[in-house]
Amino acid sequence: MRRSLRRATLVLLFAALIWGSMVPVLAALAQRYDVWLLSWLRYVLGVPVLWLAVMLSARPLAPPAPLRAGRLLQLGAAMTVFSVLYTFGVAHSHPATAAIVLMCGPITATILSRIMLGSSMPPGFLFTLLLVVGGGVIVVLGTPGRPAGGLGLRGGEALLIAAQVCWNWYSIRAQQWLADRGQIMLSALTTSVASVLLGGVCLAVGLAGGIRWPDGPPAVADAGMMLWIGVLGVAAAILLWNTGVSLVGVAVASLFSNSAPIFAIGIAALMGVEPSWLQLGGGAIVMGAIALHQLRQMRLARR
User: Fold this and answer.
1) Which of 26, 134, 151 is nearest to 87 (CA)?
2) What count of other Cβ atoms lies within 10 Å of the Cβ of residue 301?
3) Are 141 and 97 in contact (CB under 8 A)?
4) To the nearest 5 percent, what fractions of the chain are helix, strand and coil?
5) Are 72 and 189 spatial neighbours (Cβ–Cβ below 8 Å)?
6) Cβ within 8 Å of residue 297, ≥6 positions away
7) Which of 41-50, 109-118, 119-128, 214-223 comes out lowest in average pLDDT?
8) Residue 286, phi then psi, degrees to nearest 5
9) pTM for the whole thing?
10) 38-60 per-position pLDDT tens digit
11) 245-300 residue pLDDT tens
12) CA 84 to CA 93: how far, in whole Å?
C-alpha cells in the first residue's frame, strides 16, 4: 500500500509537471498556429510513442478480456469531446474565470467518483480538497498581468465543467474496462481512437473554413515544441495519469492536477516571468495540502 502511494505521488507529480510545461509552450505555438491543428497534432505525435512503448513492454500475465469496440469508441469519444469542449470553453470564458473553473476540477472528480463507483472519501480528504481548490484559486487571482475587468460568466464555463466530467468519466471507465491490458496498452488504445475522431472533427472544421492553415513548414524551434507537447504532453502525461488513477483513484489523482499551474509558474520564472506573492502563497497551499494528504495515507497504511 505504501509503495503504491509513493509510486502514485511520483507519477502524478510528473504528469502535473508535464502539463504545467504545456502552458508556456502551447501559448507560444498558438500565436503562430491554429489551436485546432495543435490539438490534433498533439495526439498524432503522441500515438506512435505509446505504441512503441507497447511493443517494448511486457505482456500481462493473465489473458485480458475480449476487446469491445463499443467501449473503446466510447472512451475515445470521451477524450475527443473533452478536447472540443475545452477548446470552446476557454475561448468563450474570461481567462481568469476559466482557470478558476479548471481549478475546481477535483470537486467534479470527487462527485463523479462517488456517483459511478460509490467511493467514500479517505480520512481528511474533504479538508485537503478545500485547501487544494482554494490554493489554486489564489494562484489564478495572483497571476501578474491577467486580463482586467470583472470575471463574470460568458457561457464557456459550463463547457469547461462538461469537459471535466468527460475526462473524469474516461479516467474511471478506462480502468474498469481496459485495466487488465495494462496501463500502456490502455493509453495507446484510447489515444489512438481519440486521434482518429479528433482528426475527423478537425476535417469538418477545416471544410467549414474554421481552421487557419500554416503558410509553410514549422521552424526548427516550433517543430521541437510540437514534439514536446505530443511526446510528453500526450503520450507520457496520459500514461502517467492513467497509472496514477489505477493506484489511488480519480478523486485523489485529480488533486495533483491542481499542481500543474505551480510547475507552470516555475517554468515561466525560468523564462524571466517573475511570479507574484499570491501565486507563491497559493502554490505553497496546494503542494502542502497534497503532501499532508499523502503522508496521512502512508501513516494509515502502516496500521
Assistant:
1) 26
2) 12
3) no
4) 80, 0, 20
5) yes
6) 5, 122
7) 119-128
8) -60, -50
9) 0.87
10) 889 889 999 999 999 999 988 87
11) 999 899 889 988 888 877 777 777 776 667 788 888 888 898 888 888 888 877 77
12) 14
Domain residues of the chain, as ranges?
2-56+67-144+151-213+224-302
Q: Round to whole Å and give the CA distance between 292 and 284.
A: 12
Distance in angstroms (rounded) separating the CA atoms of residues 73 and 89:
23
The C-alpha atoms of residue 249 and residue 298 are separated, in whole angstroms, by 16
Residue type at 62 in one-letter notation: A
- Grid cell at residue 226: 510540437
For residue 102, name the pLDDT band (cuts at 50, 70, 90): confident
| Cα torsion 290, 294, 299, 303: sign | positive
- Stated length of the chain: 303
The conformational region for residue 122 under phi > 0 = left, psi -120 to 50 = alpha, else beta, is beta
Q: How is residue 280 written as a grid cell? A: 507563491
Residue carrying the nine cell digits 478558476: 100
For the residues of 179-222, what is the DSSP string, one character each? Answer: GGG-HHHHHHHHHHHHHHHHHHHHHHHHHTT-----SSPPPHHH
Would you say 18 and 233 are in contact if contact means Cβ atoms under 8 Å apart? Answer: yes
Can you tell me the distance from the alpha carbon of 62 to that of 81, in angstroms, rounded to the nearest whole number? 33
